[in-house]
Task: structure prediction
Amino acid sequence: MDKILLTRDGYEKLKQELTLLSKVERPQVVRELLEAARDGGVEKNPDFQGTLAQRQKLERRIRQLQQILAHAEVLVGSNLPPDKVRFNSRVKVLNLDRGTEQEFRLVGGVEADASRGQLSVSSPLGRALMGRSPGERVQLKTPRGLRTYQVLEIRQEEP
Result:
């Protein structure tokens, strides 16, 4: 499996989630499972079946987090100068087609969340912005046609 790029903050959040799930939620679900089994008839017991499904979902997430953390690479530096868009930069762009400003933090795919302004460096816009300077424009083909963005401002996040 390839390395998974994470910010330090993202890595710490995933570690905290793994600790919470494995040390708090997993034992709680196991207790609930045992209690539901004590009530008898596990095959037709909706409490048992619901708790069992919850445990399976929890175990999948724990395995997923373990896999991510095992292959994580926390990227703290860059060979790009601070006046260029790079991993963990905050970038303010102007969508020239709509006249709207947007701000993104460029992160790895695991941390990406458009609703929180976290843009993956491997997304089409993320790739187009990498290495750009304030004032530069990028064009991007989208399903709705060609879009043009201008880099307005770059701020570097603390490593």
In short: The chain has two domains: 4-74, 89-156. The longest strand covers residues 145-156.
